[in-house]
Amino acid sequence: MEKKGQIIKKIVWFIVLCAMIIGTIIFYKKYNYNDFMKSVAEKNKTIFTRDSKVKCSEMDSYKVENIDYHDAMFSKTISVLPNLPYKVTCKVKVENVENEDENTTGGAHISIQGTTERSRCITGTEDWQELTLYFNSKNRNQVDIGFRLGGYEEKSKGTAWFSDFKIEEGTANSNSKWKMACFIFPEIDVNVDIKGRKEHVNLQMSQKDIQDIKNNLERFSTSIATMSRGKMSVECETITISKPIKTLSYDDENGYYVSANDVRDLIDEYVIKNEYDHIYVAFRMANKQSGSSTLVSDWIGLGGMDYLGIGFSNIRMPDDGYNYAYEYRSTMNTFPEEVFIHEFLHTLERNAKEYGYERPELHDYAKYSYEEDRLDGLKKWYMDYMNKEISYGGKKIGLPPEIFSYKPAHESNFKYGIELDDLDEPKNIIEVIRSLAKRVGSLFTNTQLKEYQLEDN
User: Running DSSP on this structure, what letter comes out for residue 309?
Assistant: First the structure.
């Protein structure tokens, strides 16, 4: 009887052990996040799980369910080498995803936490599709890659599933030839709010407006090479878009302007295909001769913006049709391409800052004793700015020369890309057990505590 009892005990312990192992595996499959952090903007608005039913491949998907408008993500810190292009891809599926402000910068996407760097965003209900984020590491040694439902300045609700993560390291393109595009929009057709009054605005560019833009882009290409003393060159093309701009963005400082989100659907196919390094958008936003309202503050160009990592600038036609700001005249204006130079320099200024270089502010020309010339505008200032020849405090300051070759990351940078294992899932039972052991061990480390702190913020 005693022997029989021992056998029964062993069987019971075996059953209990199997139940514990099965329970642990079930728990692991549902709540193991493969060292991803869970980050939320507010409490009790997001549910994170691993989904074994809705998945794209053999691996359980990562499910983010925002039960109210919210910003939430799975994120992981990745080590990178400075000044190299990187490419992150994943598969995503969405269900009933909508943005609080109907802003196209929100939805399901890949992002770098704490920055505006992101992939395109997906909303609505869509089956599995691939997302791609290209970025340059700049002067960083690590980045937090986020698989996100929400946005940097947006909140979303609904459900997103992420799967099949992959990261590649590319090869930097060290040449200083920039490929640019100017998208000319001959018409805007928008509804706006002017001093509390709703107004419909429809405006067109004339053929002369369009030709002036094209002429100045040719001058710009020549001037940028000359003014930089050969440090960079530009290949620039113009694309006229017949469809009107239907929405405008707004802020208190600049008034209405055209953001990348306002024209994304109209320029996407060109941008993806041609790998531009900088983008201009040209349009007319007022015409005194027609009595239209003024929708902007006092600017004809607006820069420093970006579209999926690519510099993005506005070029606005003057409100007065008899203004000759974009027309070369030997006695009035010998530098009509100035706005193109100025707005592109805002992109270089921003890049220099993000790479960690000290540089003067582009608008601070008066601080360094530069003045606008009647014919050439601020041409002298731009030349010294580009060539680091501004005298200040006994030294020369300006843009660092290497900034002219620091361009956006594109698919062509990954012809010989190296796939990294930082986002890999466990591939077999041994790796699963190792991951599980690491997961359990991390419960007693500060890293795990940090995860819960992030989730509670």
Answer: T
Query: d(Cα 205, Cα 218) in Å, to the nearest integer?
Result: 19
Angle between helices 207-227 and 379-386 (to 10 degrees): 50
CB atoms within 10 A of CB 199: 13
User: The tokens of 72 are what?
Assistant: 């939430």
DSSP state, 292? Answer: P
Nearest 5°: CA angle at 134, between 128 and 138? 150
Number of other CB atoms surrounding residue 158 within 10 Å: 21
- Min mean pLDDT across 213-222, 297-306, 377-386, 401-410 is at 297-306
Query: Which candidate, 28, 23, 37, places its Cα nearest to that of 453?
Result: 37
128 vs 448, residue with greater confidence: 128
List the beta bridge partners of residue 37: 75
* Cα–Cα distance for residue pair 245/266, rounded to 1 Å: 9
Biggest CA pair distance of the chain = 116
Edge to edge, the sheet with strand 301-307 lists 233-240, 177-184, 278-284, 310-317, 301-307
pLDDT value of residue 435: 58
Could you tell me which residues come within 8 angstroms of residue 373 by beta carbon, excluding any fewer than 6 positions away?
Answer: 379, 380
In this prediction, residue 277 carries a pLDDT of 97
Q: Note the pLDDT tens digit of each residue in 269-292.
A: 999 899 999 999 999 987 776 666
pLDDT in tens, 261-270: 899 999 999 9
| 122-131, 294-303, 438-447: the lowest-pLDDT one | 438-447
Residue 451 φ then ψ, to 5°:
-60, -45
In sequence order, what DSSP letters do the residues of 90-126 get, joined into one string? EEEEEEEEEETT--TT-EEEEEETTSS-B---B-EEE
